[in-house]
Amino acid sequence: MANIYKNAMFDLTTTNKTTVYTCPTGRTSLIKSIQVTNIHSGSNEVEAFTTDASASNAEHEIAHISLGSKTVENLAKNVIVLESGDALKLKAASANHIAGIVSYLEIFDEKSAWLNWFIYHMIWLTMRGNTLKKTLQMH
């Protein structure tokens, strides 16, 4: 299966941490940018966190900025790698003032692809074998 370029748009409607992206099972994601826009007339604090699914969802702060009125910033200063089940969360000091987009590349996990292919074909062969047995029994 091919790698897929995608995006996730968000509006931070609360001052709680908001999950804006979770890496799907069987994938690794490379986050290229976390563009945040302050759509309000005053400044606002914005924080970004990642959770590590392979470490009991341990949470790490990866960015913290003060965003001026009507300004745009990229919270990802370099590529951020998320593995299957890892999440990206954002938090704003004021609700309904921050909006944005996360741009990322999802990479298909080859191990999962092989396992899915194998299971599919085993099921197909089993079903085909059962159909063949019934056909032979009829004759």
Would you list the SSEs in sequence order as H and E? EEEEEEEEEH
**Principal-axis shape:** elongated
Total strand segments: 9
| Fraction in helix | 10-25%
Distance between the termini: 42 Å
Task: Kindly describe this structure.
The chain is of the alpha+beta class. It has 2 domains: 4-108, Jelly Rolls (Sandwich); 110-139. The chain contains 1 helix and 9 strands, in the order βββββββββα. It has one helix at residues 110-138, and strands at residues 4-12, 18-22, 27-38, 44-52, 58-67, 72-74, 80-82, 87-92, 98-108. The strands form 2 sheets. Strands 1, 3, 6, 7 and 9 form a 5-stranded antiparallel beta sheet that branches. The chain has a 4-stranded antiparallel beta sheet with strand order 2-8-4-5, with no helix packed on it. The longest helix has 29 residues, at 110-138. The protein starts with a strand and ends with a helix.
List keywords for this structure.
single chain; Jelly Rolls; 139 residues; elongated; 2 domains; 5-stranded antiparallel beta sheet
